[in-house]
């Protein structure tokens, strides 16, 4: 991944070589492309999931996600609501939401979250 800085910042190939989330039985990778650039309270990057055990994640911040490729099957753990999100769809997860992420094959998303960097 290459980063170009200035008034306009750019990350090249931000979706490649994502670090594993190290969740047992779950094939999931995530990597921030930007971590609070210029002091902004926002982080953005890519999330990849392959068909495996589900990933359950609790949002401690607001986040939006754009589905770059594939299909995510999302279940709100509190309400049971199930949403299928396909390539081109945009999602919003409010702070406090717990979501189960699944995919029938593979899915790639780009996210932007209102948070400070957390490794």
From TrEMBL:
CDD domains assigned: cupin_EutQ (cd02228)
UniProt xrefs under InterPro entries: EutQ, RmlC-like_jellyroll, RmlC_Cupin_sf
Gene3D superfamilies: Jelly Rolls
Pfam families, per the entry: EutQ (PF06249)
Entry-linked SUPFAM superfamilies: RmlC-like cupins
Stated name of the protein: Ethanolamine utilization protein
